[in-house]
Amino acid sequence: MEAEKEDKIKEQKKNLEKQIGEKREEKMQKRESSRAIIFRDGAMVSMYRERDGRTFYTFPGGGMEEAGWRKAKPSSSAW
User: Fold this and answer.
1) What are phi and psi of 67, to 5 degrees?
2) Is 34 exposed, middle or buried (0-12, 13-18, 19+ CB in 10 A)?
3) The pTM is what?
């Protein structure tokens, strides 16, 4: 009986994690972007970000407009 409850809880957790993952993917919009990897004084430069309750690091750069010049975006964000 106890094993059945544990299995049911595991299945519910698995389903919930799947639903959360699907919702996160719905929020994410894919767009073309350009990034720069910069080394300064022997260290790699990154940007600290907080969004939607998540904390992460990313490289300088960003999304490009449809007519954007692919090489320009990282340099403008890096300086």
Assistant:
1) -100, 15
2) buried
3) 0.41
